[in-house]
Amino acid sequence: MAETAVGRPRLERENEDGAVYALYWLGKFPGETARARGHPQASAISVCGWLGLLFPPLWPIALICAYLNPRGQEPTPPPDLSGLRAALDAATAKVAQIEQRLGKTGAS
What mean pLDDT do residues 94-105 have? Predict the structure, then answer.
């Protein structure tokens, strides 16, 4: 096993790095989910996600809140949905055009 500059085996150091990254990912996940879903309290959910690392019951609460929509409020779509809608409409038109051509040639 190769040694690092501080004298610890490299494998232990890599395991520590993985644990640190896992904690970082767990802390940011509820906030990122809330922002991606357009939740109006995304910042509060993000804070709750980070505090959930210190107080574990808060983390699942933050995650649940990230997926819930407040009462009486429709979820805001992500900003790229308009481009997807245009692409879907174009693809639908092409499929209809191909079906018409196939219908004409298949009926002969």
Answer: 86
